[in-house]
Design brief:
The protein has twelve helices and no strands. It is an all-alpha fold.
């Protein structure tokens, strides 16, 4: 080694196989969504425990990835690409904000934001949900899990060629698999959506209880692939986190404005 050259960090110590880590991660996420949506659904609607618990689960998944020998860069926490991740994330957030502004300006599209869950929120609760609950309780866990840990455990290497804005072909299989799991993650939350969103209820009628979960899985899978693209374009998890927060919190604010 050349004198004075910085030593390259060695691989993380591997205690679990990636297959075992993947099984544990999926089990943890399955238990989490069942508890949040079927066992104790009230605690996920704005209570203080939701961001704390889900933030802790995100940390647990990162520790699990480390025990499987994955480094920080493989799950999207490479400090060398932080600036790029932030700039690309800002661009993505701006695109989402522009799309919402255009939708709100067109009366036919405004109905899509007619959601009774947001209509009755006070300003204080709106800020709590948009600034704390969604970024920490929802987005942090979902991005760490479905754009960070799971793709890495499924074989993703996070090594995009050169300055390319798209991941190499070998990365799409882990991205697709984790996106399908992201779609399944939304099955239970979607079951109550038909009765709370006026546009969906009027569109599908009595079939909403079946069609809405199917559409939620398909739509969330596509959204997962879209967020995977942002994750690779920005070379880190900060990019999809920024895009995801803008998408979810922006939709909530738009629904609140329409309902108010």
């Amino acid at each position: 080694m050349t004198v004075g050259a910085p030593a390259r960090p060695g691989p993380a110590r591997r205690v679990l196989s990636r297959r075992a880590g993947l099984a544990i991660a999926i089990a943890v996420l399955a238990i989490t969504t069942v508890v949040a949506n079927a066992v104790l659904p009230g605690w996920s609607l704005g209570g203080w425990a939701y961001p704390l618990v889900n933030g802790a689960i995100a940390g647990l998944l990162v520790l699990l990835a480390a025990r499987c020998g994955l480094g920080a860069a493989q799950i999207g926490f490479d400090r060398r690409t932080l600036r790029r991740s932030a700039l690309v994330g800002l661009a993505g957030a701006a695109l989402v904000g522009l799309a919402y502004a255009l939708a709100l300006a067109l009366p036919p599209l405004r109905q899509a934001f007619d959601d009774e869950r947001a209509a009755g929120l006070s300003v204080g609760w709106l800020l709590w949900v948009a600034v704390v609950r969604i970024p920490i309780g929802t987005v942090l866990l979902e991005e760490v899990a479905f754009r960070g840990v799971l793709p890495a455990l499924l074989g993703g290497s996070d090594r995009a060629p050169g300055r390319s804005w798209t991941p190499p072909r070998r990365e799409w299989r882990p991205a697709l698999a984790s996106s399908v799991l992201f779609g399944l993650w939304h099955v239970l939350p979607s079951l109550s959506l038909a009765g709370q969103n006026a546009a969906l209820g009027s569109l599908f009628g009595s079939a909403a209880t079946v069609l809405v979960p199917l559409l939620a899985v398909a739509g969330s899978t596509l959204a997962g692939l879209w967020l995977c693209w942002w994750r690779y374009a920005g070379r880190g998890l900060l990019t999809p986190i920024m895009v995801h927060v803008t998408t979810n919190s922006g939709a909530l604010v738009a629904a609140w404005a329409v309902g108010g």
